[in-house]
Amino acid sequence: MLRYTPLIKPAVISLLLLLLGVLYYYYSPEDNAWFPRCSFYLLTGWQCPSCGSQRVVHALLHGEVGQALRYNPFMLVSIPYAVGVVLSTTWASPWAKRMRAILLHRNVVLAYVVLFVAWWVLRNIL
Ligand SMILES: [Zn+2]
User: What is the distance in A from the centroid of ligand 1 to the CA of 40?
Assistant: First the structure.
């Protein structure tokens, strides 16, 4: 039986992020119908804040920052923030603890939520 150690959770999450990176590097969400589609867009016809995020990841993994910006510029803020939150809440180190305190500070989270909602509205009215 596998014993739990503090390194298993961060190792598994890091491995999953790596596998997702490999998947999105080799397969384009634009050319493969088996990638999940946005339920909000399918139901309403409006774009959610993260519409285009899979294409953004694929473009960024190929170094196409301009293309990623055209797909969804807000993801260039959200992806590093999300990766930072996941890694800092997964790893148990002094560095991760400091990073977690910054990323999950009330004002930082509030600013992110305000930007998230503003982006959601703006991308559907512009
Ligand atoms: Zn969407």
Answer: 6
